[in-house]
């Protein structure tokens, strides 16, 4: 399937649209796809541009060496060009945090296509995607403690994603782990050959892109919020989410009808339909 390029977001972040999903590429390969202020602005614009028509977004980096090396430290906040201390505000002071909030609250499912090193803020991006496909040549880590600071976003987000002792190792040693260990630890969903990373991520995004947008939106929110709840609250949240979805979309009625029709034609087979049989939402 051929994508449609969107040049409105500049050269630092590329946007390509497909049916039901988009591919967003961080395009600073000469800087290991580190995100300077201009790149972060373009990324925010690209995410906003696909809110209405994309149920999934693939995030990847240009080249084969790096997925994302995090925030560009050459623009580290603190001093302006005139070496004057900048005003620090309680909200909106960290643009990279604001990007993460945009992804968290975005109605689309995010699929990371980790084509290379994901370090610091790049690991934060991986953590903030619901699904992550990694190259078997990718590495993961957070170098901040070696630079004399705590990995504020990557450390906190990793502690939410994997077991505490695994997260502690990454935070406290600044060591890097390979893709296979990242898979065992739960940082990524699956590992494939380098040449297959983007195609596999797009394959997953295409599956999600065929689903009803209301179902995807509320299901993503549940996936993110339920793990923070106790057993009873999580079950209650699941029930309420189902009620909200059914009240705002006819997808459930149509889906159950198709399922029962197939069961009758198949002699009473009541197994749930595969995602590969999902019909495009129009």
What does this structure look like?
- This protein is an alpha/beta fold and 282 residues long.
- The protein has 2 domains: 4-209, 2-enoyl-CoA Hydratase, Chain A, domain 1 (Alpha-Beta Complex); 213-277.
- The protein has 10 helices and 11 strands.
- It has helices at residues 37-49, 95-105, 121-128, 152-161, 164-173, 179-185, 197-209, 213-225, 231-248, 251-265, and strands at 4-6, 13-18, 21-26, 56-61, 66-68, 109-114, 117-119, 131-135, 139-141, 176-178, 190-192.
- The protein has a 7-stranded mixed beta sheet with strand order 1-2-3-4-6-8-11, with helices on both faces. It has a 4-stranded mixed beta sheet with strand order 5-7-9-10.
- β2 (13-18) and β3 form a beta hairpin.
- It is globular and about 65 Å long.
- It starts with a strand and ends in a 17-residue tail after the last helix.
